[in-house]
C-alpha cells in the first residue's frame, strides 16, 4: 500500500502501541496537532495486543503511582471524548498474604500508597473470602484491597486514543518502518523511512521491545530485553461471578481475573528466558512464543490450590508472548541526556497498559512545556549506564527483574546477577576486611563489614536486619573515633581549558571564581530552576577543575555539562572516574591518624575546611580535600589507582591504636541523614529548587554573569515557599523508616518521606521528607504543628526540624 508521508512534522512518534497512541492523543489535546505517528506493522501489534489489561496502582515509587493515577483518569474520561470504549471496569485488586512476611510487606505498602491518596484496605481472612469466595483459605493470612483498581482492554484503549488523535488531525500511518533518526549539533532533525524522510523538531521512541535497537540508531542507550511471559485463559466456567476483584498472589507468582465468564491466570514466575536478544526478527508483529507446560505446570498447580475452581476448568488458551523488561525494573521515560528533543517511552516491565495512558500524558506535557509535570528521577534516561545495553549483561540482569517481580520486596534488597563487574582498586582490601558488597551502577561497594565469625550475607527483614549492629558500630566509629569509607565508585569529571571557569560559572548557582585549592558545593539547575545536579567542584588550577558526582548520576552530570559548553567555549570535560581510588577518612581522630603520615600541616589553620591540596602520604602522593558527607572532621583522599592498596595499608597500620574501622555505605547513609545532607535522586531532583530543598545558602544571586535558572529561581523566591524538605526524627526508637511513608501534620496528609535511615547517634529513625503547605508560608510553619509519620499502618509522632538535628552549627567538621 502506498503511503504519502508529510515532508515535515513538529513531532514524529515511532511506535503504534498504547504509549505512542497516548502521546499522540495528549499532544493533540494540548493543541500540538502537527504530529505524525508511524507504526511499521499494525497498531497494537507489538506487545499491546496481548496485554492482560490489569490496572493496579501498587507501583514501587511515588511518581510511578502518579502515572497510574493519570491513567485511571484517562480510562474513565476517554470514551466521552472519542465515542470509543476503553473497556475499563472498576473491580478492585486484592493482594494476598500467604505468609507472615507477605502480610508485613502489605502493611507497609498500605501506608506508602496513602501518600498518593490511594485507598487501600487491609482485610482479614474472613473479609477476603467474603469479597472473593472462590479462594482457598489454606495458609491465608489476609489481603490488601485496592478498591479503585480495575481492568480494561489494551487494544480498545489504544484504538480510542488513536481515534481521539485523528479527530484532532494527527496523522497515524501504518506499514511505515523508520530506518534511522537524523541529527545535527546534538539535536534530532527528523526520521528516515523507506518511503521518504520527515523533518521533525521532536522524535519519540515508543517502540516497545524494539526500543533498544531503535535507540541505538541515534546513539541513545535504552537498556531493555524481551522475555517470555505467560498467561492461561480457561473455558467458560458455569456460575462464575462477574467482576470479582483481581487476585494477586506473590507467593504463588500469579494473578487471576475473571473475563467473559472464564478466568485468566497470568504468571510472574522465576525461570523465564530471553527472546530476540541478538535482535528481534524483522517485521515481527503479533508475536506468539511456544507453549511450555513443563515450565509452567508446577506454577499452575500452585495457583489451582489457591483457587480450586481451576482444577476442573478446561484451558482454552495457553499464551506466551514477549514483554520487555529493564535492568532495574523501572521503565524509561524522558529525554535522552545527549540528544536534544529525543524522547523515550519504553521498557515498561509488563505494566505498559496500566501506565501507558498516563505516561503518554506526562510525555506530551513534557514536550509542550519543556519539563516533566512529575518528578521522576527513577525513570530518567540519565540513570542508564553504558554496560546496561550489553547483550550478555541484559540476558542475566533482566531475568532477575522478572524473577523478583512477585517476590517480597525487602528493604535494602541487593541484585545478585551479572556481578561482579566494576570493582574498586581497593576491592581486595575491603573484601579482606569483611566487606558485604552491594551493587550500584555496576560498582561493587562495601555496604557493611562482617566481623570475624559473622556470616557475610543479607538476611532481609522489615525489622532490624542482621547487619544492624555491625553498621551501628561503623557509624559510632565515625562519630567517636575514625572510620574509612571506600568511595572510589563516586563519579569524577575533569573539566579543563581556557573557558572552563566560565562554563562552570554558567551552570553553577555558587561562585566558582575561587583560588586554586578551594572546593565549592553547588547545584546545577535547569531553566525552570529545578536541580539537575548536586556536586562538589575542586579548582585544581586556573584552567582545571574536578567535579565530584554520585556513581549513579555521573553520566547525566557529564551530559548536562557537555550541553552547557558552547561552540565558542574552549573547554573539555572527561569522565576520569576509573583512574582514581577515593577514601573518605572521617571522624574526630582523623587528624591524629593522618598527620604523622604526611609532611603537610593538617591543623585547622594550616588546612582549613573547604581546601584541597596534593600531599605526600606513605610513599606516594594523593589529593586531600577537607570536606565531609558524614558531618565529622575528615579528608577525602583521591588516590592514583596504582597506589591505592598501599595507601589503605598505611592508614590501617597506623590506625590500630586509634580503633580505626572500615565503614560501609549503610553507615555512611545513616551518618549523612543525621546531618540532613541531601542525596540527588532521593531527596532532591529536577522538580525541586534549591530554596525548597533548603539549599539557598549555595545560591550566589549577584555573581557576575548569573547562572542558568536564575530568573525562574527569583520568581520562586518572590512567590514564597509552599513546600520544603524537612528533617524528621521519630519519637519512638523502635520503628524503622525506608522511603515514601506518608507524613501528617495536625492529622492532615502533607507529604512523604524521601529517604531515611536509623540514626544511631540520635537514637531513632531519621528521615528527610517533603512537606507541602496550602500556600506560601513562613519557614517556621514547617517546624510547627504536630507531626506523625505512618509506618506499616501505625502513626508515629515525629520531631520536625529545618536545621540539622546533629551538630546544627556544623562545628565538628570545622574543628
From TrEMBL:
- Its domain of life reads Bacteria
Q: Which InterPro entries match?
A: FAD-dep_OxRdtase, FAD/NAD-bd_sf, FAO_M, GcvT/YgfZ/DmdA, GcvT/YgfZ_C, GcvT_C, GCVT_N, TrmE/GcvT-like
Give the Aminomethyltransferase C-terminal domain ranges: 723-807
In terms of Gene3D superfamilies, this protein maps to: Aminomethyltransferase beta-barrel domains, D-Amino Acid Oxidase, subunit A, domain 2, FAD/NAD(P)-binding domain, Probable tRNA modification gtpase trme, domain 1
FAD dependent oxidoreductase central domain residues are: 369-424
Residues annotated as domain FAD dependent oxidoreductase: 11-366
Residue ranges of every copy of the GCVT N-terminal domain listed in the record: 426-703
Family, per entry? Belongs to the GcvT family.
Q: What is this protein called?
A: FAD-dependent oxidoreductase
Amino acid at each position: 500500500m502506498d503511503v504519502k508521508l508529510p515532508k515535515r512534522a513538529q513531532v514524529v512518534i515511532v511506535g503504534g502501541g498504547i504509549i505512542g497512541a497516548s502521546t499522540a492523543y495528549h499532544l493533540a489535546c494540548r493543541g500540538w496537532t502537527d504530529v505524525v505517528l508511524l507504526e511499521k506493522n499494525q497498531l497494537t501489534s507489538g506487545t499491546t495486543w496481548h496485554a492482560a489489561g490489569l490496572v493496579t496502582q501498587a507501583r514501587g515509587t511515588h511518581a510511578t503511582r502518579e502515572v497510574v493515577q493519570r491513567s485511571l483518569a484517562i480510562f474513565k474520561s476517554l470514551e466521552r471524548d472519542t465515542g470509543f470504549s476503553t473497556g475499563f471496569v472498576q473491580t478492585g485488586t486484592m493482594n494476598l498474604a500467604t505468609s507472615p512476611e507477605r502480610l508485613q510487606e502489605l502493611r507497609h505498602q498500605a501506608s506508602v500508597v496513602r501518600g498518593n491518596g490511594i485507598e487501600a484496605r487491609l482485610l482479614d481472612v474472613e473479609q477476603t473470602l467474603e469479597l472473593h469466595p472462590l479462594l482457598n483459605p489454606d495458609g491465608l493470612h489476609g489481603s490488601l484491597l485496592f478498591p479503585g483498581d480495575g481492568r480494561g482492554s489494551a487494544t480498545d484503549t489504544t484504538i480510542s486514543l488513536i481515534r481521539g488523535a485523528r479527530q484532532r488531525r494527527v496523522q497515524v500511518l501504518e506499514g511505515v518502518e523508520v530506518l534511522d533518526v537524523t541529527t545535527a549539533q546534538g539535536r534530532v532533525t527528523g526520521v528516515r523511512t523507506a518511503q521518504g524522510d520527515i523533518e521533525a523538531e521532536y522524535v519519540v521512541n515508543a517502540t516497545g521491545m524494539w526500543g533498544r535497537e531503535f535507540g541505538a540508531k541515534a546513539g541513545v542507550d535504552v537498556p531493555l530485553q524481551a522475555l517470555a511471559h505467560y498467561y492461561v485463559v480457561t473455558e467458560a466456567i458455569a456460575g462464575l461471578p462477574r467482576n470479582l476483584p483481581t487476585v494477586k498472589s506473590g507467593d504463588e507468582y500469579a494473578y487471576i481475573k475473571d473475563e467473559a465468564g472464564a478466568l485468566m491466570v497470568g504468571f510472574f514466575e522465576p525461570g523465564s528466558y530471553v527472546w530476540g536478544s541478538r535482535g528481534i526478527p524483522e517485521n515481527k508483529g503479533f508475536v506468539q512464543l511456544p507453549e511450555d507446560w513443563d515450565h509452567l505446570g508446577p506454577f499452575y498447580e500452585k495457583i489451582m490450590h489457591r483457587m480450586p475452581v481451576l482444577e476442573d476448568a478446561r484451558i482454552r488458551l495457553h499464551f506466551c508472548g514477549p514483554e520487555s523488561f529493564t535492568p532495574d525494573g523501572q521503565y524509561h521515560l524522558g529525554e535522552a541526556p545527549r540528544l536534544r528533543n529525543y524522547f523515550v517511552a519504553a521498557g515498561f516491565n509488563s505494566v505498559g497498559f496500566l501506565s501507558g495512558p498516563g505516561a503518554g500524558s506526562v510525555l506530551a506535557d513534557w514536550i509542550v512545556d519543556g519539563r516533566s509535570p512529575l518528578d521522576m528521577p527513577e525513570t530518567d534516561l540519565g540513570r542508564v549506564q553504558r554496560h546496561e545495553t550489553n547483550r550478555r549483561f541484559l540476558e542475566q540482569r533482566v531475568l532477575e527483574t522478572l524473577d523478583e517481580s512477585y517476590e517480597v520486596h525487602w528493604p535494602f534488597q541487593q541484585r545478585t546477577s551479572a556481578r561482579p563487574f566494576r570493582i574498586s582498586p581497593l576491592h581486595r582490601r575491603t573484601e579482606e576486611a569483611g566487606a558485604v558488597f552491594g551493587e550500584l551502577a555496576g560498582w561493587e561497594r562495601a555496604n557493611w563489614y562482617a566481623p570475624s565469625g559473622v556470616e557475610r550475607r543479607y538476611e532481609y527483614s522489615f525489622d532490624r536486619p542482621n547487619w544492624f549492629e555491625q553498621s551501628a558500630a561503623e557509624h559510632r566509629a565515625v562519630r567517636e573515633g575514625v572510620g574509612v569509607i571506600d568511595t572510589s565508585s563516586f563519579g569524577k569529571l575533569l573539566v579543563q581549558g581556557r573557558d572552563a571557569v566560565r562554563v562552570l560559572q554558567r551552570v553553577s548557582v555558587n561562585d566558582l571564581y575561587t583560588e586554586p585549592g578551594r572546593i565549592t558545593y553547588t547545584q546545577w539547575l535547569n531553566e525552570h530552576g529545578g536541580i539537575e545536579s548536586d556536586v562538589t567542584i575542586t579548582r585544581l588550577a586556573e584552567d582545571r577543575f574536578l567535579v565530584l558526582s554520585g556513581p549513579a548520576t555521573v553520566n547525566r552530570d557529564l551530559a548536562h555539562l557537555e550541553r552547557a559548553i558552547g561552540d565558542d567555549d574552549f573547554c573539555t570535560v572527561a569522565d576520569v572516574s576509573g583512574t582514581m581510588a577515593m577514601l573518605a577518612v572521617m571522624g574526630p581522630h582523623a587528624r591524629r591518624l593522618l598527620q604523622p603520615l604526611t609532611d603537610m600541616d593538617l591543623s585547622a589553620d594550616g588546612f582549613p575546611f573547604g581546601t584541597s591540596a596534593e600531599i605526600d602520604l606513605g610513599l606516594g602522593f594523593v589529593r586531600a580535600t577537607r570536606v565531609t558527607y558524614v558531618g565529622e572532621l575528615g579528608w577525602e583522599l583521591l588516590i592514583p589507582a596504582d597506589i591505592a592498596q598501599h595507601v589503605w595499608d598505611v592508614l590501617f597500620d597506623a590506625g590500630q591504636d586509634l580503633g580505626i574501622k572500615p565503614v560501609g555505605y549503610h553507615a555512611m547513609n545513616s551518618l549523612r541523614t543525621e546531618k540532613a545532607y541531601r542525596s540527588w535522586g532521593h531527596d532532591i531532583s529536577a522538580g525541586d529548587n534549591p530554596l525548597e530543598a533548603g539549599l539557598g545558602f549555595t545560591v550566589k544571586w549577584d555573581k557576575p554573569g548569573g547562572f542558568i535558572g536564575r530568573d525562574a529561581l527569583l520568581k520562586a523566591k518572590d512567590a514564597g515557599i509552599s513546600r520544603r524538605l524537612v528533617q524528621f526524627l521519630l519519637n519512638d526508637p523502635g520503628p524503622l523508616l525506608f522511603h515514601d511513608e506518608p507524613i501528617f501534620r495536625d492529622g492532615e496528609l502533607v507529604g512523604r518521606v524521601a529517604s531515611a535511615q536509623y540514626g544511631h547517634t540520635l537514637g531513632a529513625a531519621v528521615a528527610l521528607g517533603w512537606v507541602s503547605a496550602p500556600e506560601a508560608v513562613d519557614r517556621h510553619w514547617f517546624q510547627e504543628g504536630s507531626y506523625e509519620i505512618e509506618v506499616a499502618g501505625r502513626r508515629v509522632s515525629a520531631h520536625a526540624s529545618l536545621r540539622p538535628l546533629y551538630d546544627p552549627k556544623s562545628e565538628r567538621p570545622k574543628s
